Amino acid sequence: MFTHRAVTRRVLTAVAVAVLVAVTGCSGGGSGANASRSPAPGGSSPGSSPSASSPSRSPDSSTPSGRAATIGKVSRVTEDLNTPWGLAFLPDGSALAASRDTGKVVRVGPDGRKQDAGKVPGVVAQGEGGLLGLAVAPTYTKDHWVYAYFTAAGDNRIVRMKYEDGRLGTPSTVITGIPKGSNHNGGRIAFGPDGLLYAGTGERYQRELAQDEKSLGGKILRMKPDGSVPPGNPFPDSVIYSYGHRNVQGLTWDGDGHLWASEFGQNNWDELNLIKPGKNYGWPVVEGVSDKPADKAKYVNPVAVWHTDDASPSGVAFADGAVWMASLRGERLWRIPISGEKAGKPKAFLTGTYGRLRTVVRAKDGTLWLTTSNTDGRGRVRSGDDLILRLTLR
To answer: Where in the sequence is the domain holding 224, given as residue range(s)?
Structure first.
C-alpha cells in the first residue's frame, strides 16, 4: 500500500495556452441538475451558468486545420446496463464494463453478448461514488491484471485483480487514501504510453484539497502498476502529477504523447486541459480562464472551456486527430481537433439523441465505444438504457 508523504510547496510558473470557448445555439435537453454543480457557500445555484450570449473568449489565431473526422454509422453494441461507468478493452477486442451502483463487471463482446465477470468487493455506492474507472494493464497478455477505481467505506482506492477464465479474482491494493465524498470522487484511470498508471481524482467538494499537496484529492496521479512512485514524478516521494483540479473525469493521450484531461467546473466553465507535470490548474482560485497577470503566472489555463449546460464532461478518447469528449448534462459528444499543444474549434454530435453520455473509448478496430448514463438518477431513462454505442469515424 502506498502512503502519501508531504511534499514541499513550490511556486510554479505556468505557460498560458490557447483558449477556446465552445458555445452552441442548441440545448442538450439536460435532464435535471447535476450534483457536481452544487453551489459553494456564497455561490450561485446550479444551472446559473452563462448563456450562449455571454461574453466569450476568442481562440488563438493559430488553431489546427485540415481534415476533420466526423461520425458515420452509429449502432448499438449492447443495452440494459446498470449505471455503466468504466469501460476498458481486452486484447481480443471485447471490453469490460463496470456498474457504478452494483459493483459488478460484465464482459461485452464485439457482437454485444454479455458475460458476468464478477463483482468487486468493498464497493460503497453513494451519490457519485461506487465502482468507477477500469483499466487493463498493457502487460495483460502476460499477467492478466485488470485495475479498478472505486469508492470504499472510508476512501477512494485503486485495486488490481486477475481476470482469468472469465472471472475476476481477489483484489490486491494498489493505492488507498484518495478522499471520498458524495460528489467529486474523480474515478478515471488509464495507462499512459509510458506504461504507468494515471488516475483523475476529485476534491470531494472540499475545495481547499485541490491546492493541498499533502492530499490526493483534486489531482492527477501517476504511479507504477504496483502503486509506488515512479522516477520522474514532479514532487519527491509523491504520486501527484498535477494539482489544482476540481473533479477530473477523463484522461487520454494523443499521438505525440500529450496528456489531455476533462474536468467539471462549478457553475460557469467546464474544461479541457493539457496536462504538464507539476503544474497547478488553478481550482478553486480560478474556474475556467483567468486573464489576471498574477493568475496567468501561477496557474495553467485550460485549452478549451464550455458553459456547464453544454458539457459536464466525463470520459475522453483520442482518435483521428481529435479529442472526443462525452458530456453528461450537455447530452452530446464533442470533437476537439488537436494539433501539437493547440486545440481547434469544437463541434458537437449526437446532441440530445441518446441522453447523458459518460464514457468514450477507442476500440481495437478504430471505432469509438460510447456509454450512456441515463440510469444514474439524473437522466431520463429511454428504451434499452443504458447502452453501449459503436461509432464509426470518417
So the answer is: 21-31+65-393
Whole-structure pTM value: 0.86
In a domain, 232, yes or no: yes
Q: Do 241 and 305 touch, CB atoms closer than 8 A?
A: no
Answer whether 239's CB lies under 8 Å from 231's CB.
no
Who's near 152: CB < 8 A, 6+ residues apart? 122, 123, 124, 176, 180
Percentage of the chain beyond pLDDT 70 is: 83
**Residue from 368, 348, 351, 350 nearest 359 by CA:** 368
Q: Max CA-CA distance within the chain?
A: 57
Determine phi and psi for 372, rounding to 5 degrees.
-90, 165
3-state secondary structure the chain: CECCCCCCCCCCCCCCCCCCEECCCCCCCCCCCCHHHCCCCCCCCCCCCCCCCCCCCCCCCCCCCCCCCCEEEEEEEECCCCCEEEEEECCCCCEEEEECCCCEEEEECCCCCEEEEEECCCCCCCCCCCEEEEEECCCHHHHCEEEEEEECCCCEEEEEEEEECCEECCCEEEEEEECCCCCCCCCCEEECCCCCEEEECECCCCHHHHHCCCCCCCEEEEECCCCCCCCCCCCCCCCEEEECCCEEEEEEECCCCCEEEEECCCCCEEEEEEECCCCECCCCCCCCCCCCHHHHHHCCCCCEEEEHHHCCEEEEEEECCEEEEEECCCCCEEEEEEECCEECCCEEECCCCCCCEEEEEECCCCCEEEEECCCCCCCCCCCCCCCEEEEEEC
Looking up residue 257, the CATH number of its domain turns out to be 2.120.10.30
Overall number of domains in the chain: 1
Contacts of 40 (CB under 8 A, 6+ apart): 207, 266, 284
In a domain, 153, yes or no: yes
Q: Give a yes or no: residue 47 inside a domain.
A: no
Q: What is the β-pairing status of strands 71-78 and 21-22?
A: unpaired
* Structure confidence by residue, pLDDT tens digits, 19-55: 333 433 332 333 333 344 433 332 322 223 333 323 2
What pLDDT is attached to residue 28? Answer: 33
In a domain, 40, yes or no: no
